[in-house]
Design goal:
The complex is a heterodimer of chains A (358) and B (197). With 358 residues, chain A is mostly helical. Chain A is 68% helix and 0% strand. Chain A has one domain. In chain A, helix 1 packs antiparallel against helix 2 and helix 10 crosses helix 12 (291-319). In chain B, 70% of the residues lie in helices and 0% in strands. In chain B, helix 2 (26-46) runs antiparallel to helix 3. The chains are: A mainly alpha (358), B mainly alpha (197).
Chain lengths: 358, 197
């Protein structure tokens, strides 16, 4: 990004950077619109329903119709609510969820900001997501939202711990906190992806366990079923978003889906080789094509992997019953935390005494 | 560019730090505090300490401030009433403030610097995460371990203080539950019609 500014002068460089960010945001937003539809379609298919199928062919335009509906409705602010915080909460949720995308590399060199501490940045931003929920719940001045937000805060803080420890595993194996470097570390075919790590065969069981824990923690961190206790409709009506309507509600929902897709992208990057294909083509073959074409191929791989995890998220929403709150806490603190800690110790020992290959 | 960013961040830090003590609502105070932490992280990024900045956000904003907010929101204290008597603490507060400013002034005058900050504590390190690691795990290894031990003791202390074993409470034993088989719980009895068991 800084090279754009250096090569084109300050003004045009900044405009180019802004254009890049705008394009990226647009693509992400459009993808979210269709992923929302996919989520509902998968859910419906499991229940043998058809799902949304009226607006547009196969209901493809359903999300846009919903968008228009949310925008045109009246914003209701409950009496006694803390108005500023009430409206700040959804904006913060969506802004933070958006901010995480800044460091996601979608293809070689196609990243808005190639931070040295990219993965820590992602972790930091996703750990801030809890504020939108707490603020929303508190500012509503209502019992159900408040209870929902308290539950959510405890849940997200608990699962962040194990997510952090699993991320340390990946950092140890790849030897870098830069997301591009982490992806490139898995570049020589599917057997070098961190989930399999056949080139460090002793780490294979550790990484598989770590990935499963990461997946479950990601479900809990994004408040997805079976861990959607903050908004358990049978107990808390809809948790922290009870009092929200119209655009603020839209922002909450959008932020939630941004976070879900961000988590899917993180799984693809950390464990499944990011933009790399299943088998690497030789550089002779790749060099025949222009760079943008190769990058589009990489982008397709990245999107396919992210989509796969999103599909799993959607499927799990439909097939798994909700956890009880004490079971959720037990899983987080008594099972995931010790296991993740053990995984860090084993991986650390391997890195020091055996040495990582490749 | 960097200078403009610095002044923006510095202004936000100052204003939000002031608002922490001025705000009437304690929840607002904590929210301002979060903004202060976050902007301070931005300042750290500006001087090139991005690792520290991220740690500040993860630890203080992501965990500590959440618990702060949690506690403050649950408190049901009449803060207007509490504020009324606060005037008589002013001399003490002023004393603490003066001591604090004096310490900062002393530190900044004692340190000879040409205005730039260098991170050459660990030469040869590519990133500042590596630099911190090299210093912390070699030179200050013992202190680091000691800090870890203190934290461990504090954690165990907190658990011991809050752990209550109450008698007569029925607890769920999940291993026992899942180990239960059908034959442990059910019995098939051939019942003759009209007789019952």
């Amino acid at each position: 990004m800084s090279s754009l500014i250096e090569n084109n002068g300050v003004l045009i460089g900044w405009l180019l950077v802004m254009g890049q960010i705008g394009l990226f945001a647009l693509v992400v937003l459009l993808s979210i619109a269709f992923l929302l539809l996919l989520d509902r379609k998968v859910w419906a298919s499991v229940m043998m329903r058809k799902g949304p199928n009226v607006v547009g062919p196969f209901g493809l335009l359903q999300s846009f119709a919903d968008f228009g509906k949310f925008l045109l409705k009246e914003i209701i602010i409950p009496a006694g609510a803390n108005k500023t915080v009430f409206l700040l909460a959804p904006v913060m949720t969506v802004a933070l969820a958006f901010a995480g995308w800044a460091v996601i590399p979608v293809a070689p060199g196609w990243v808005i900001s190639d931070l040295n501490v990219g993965i820590l940045y992602l972790f930091a931003v996703s750990s801030l997501g809890v504020y939108g929920i707490i603020m929303g719940g508190w500012a509503s001045n209502s019992k159900y939202p408040f209870l929902g937000s308290l539950r959510s805060a405890a849940q997200m803080v608990s699962y962040e711990v194990s997510i952090g420890l699993i991320i340390i595993n990946v950092i140890l194996v790849s030897g870098s906190m830069n997301l591009t470097a982490i992806v490139d570390h898995q570049g020589s075919g599917f057997w070098t992806w961190h989930i399999l790590s056949f080139n460090n065969i002793l780490l294979f069981p550790v990484m598989v366990v770590a990935f499963v824990m990461f997946f479950v923690s990601a479900l809990a961190e994004t408040n997805r079923p079976p861990f959607d206790l903050p908004e358990a409709e049978s107990e808390l009506v809809a948790g922290y978003q009870v009092e929200y309507s119209s655009t603020p509600y839209l922002l909450f929902m959008l932020g939630e889906y941004f976070n879900i897709v961000l988590m899917c992208a993180m799984m693809a990057i950390l464990f499944f080789g990011g933009w790399h294909g299943v088998v690497p083509f030789g550089s002779d073959f790749v060099n025949q094509f222009p760079v943008w074409m190769v990058n589009l191929g990489h982008l397709a791989w990245f999107m396919a992997k992210t989509l796969f995890f999103f599909f799993l998220f959607a499927l799990i929403k439909a097939v798994v019953p909700r956890y009880r709150y004490d079971q959720l806490m037990r899983l987080g603190w008594k099972i995931f935390l010790p296991t993740a800690l053990a995984a860090v110790v084993i991986t650390g020992g391997y890195v020091v005494y055996v040495g990582v290959q490749g | 560019m960097e200078l403009i960013a610095f002044y923006i961040f510095a202004a936000i830090v100052t204003v939000s730090a002031l608002s922490v003590i001025i705000a009437r609502n304690p929840v607002h105070s904590v929210l301002w505090l979060i903004l202060t932490f976050f902007t301070a992280a931005g300042l750290l990024v500006l001087i090139g300490a991005e690792f520290l900045a991220m740690l500040l956000v993860v630890v203080y904003v992501g965990a500590v401030a959440v618990l702060f907010l949690f506690v403050v929101m649950m408190l049901d204290v009449d803060f207007v009433e509490m504020k009324q008597g606060s005037l008589r603490y002013w001399p003490f507060a002023g004393l603490v403030g003066i001591a604090f400013i004096a310490e900062i002034a002393l530190a900044s005058f004692a340190r000879e610097t040409d205005g730039t900050i260098d991170f050459e504590a660990a030469p040869g390190a590519a990133t500042n995460a590596e630099a911190i690691g090299q210093v912390m795990y070699t030179q200050y290894f013992l202190l680091f371990q000691l800090a870890g031990l203190i934290l461990l003791v504090a954690m165990i202390g907190a658990i011991v203080l809050t752990l209550r074993e109450r008698a007569g409470i029925k607890r769920q034993n999940i291993a026992q539950q899942t180990a239960r088989r059908r034959k442990d719980a059910t019995e098939a009895v051939p019942v003759e019609p009209g007789k019952g068991i």
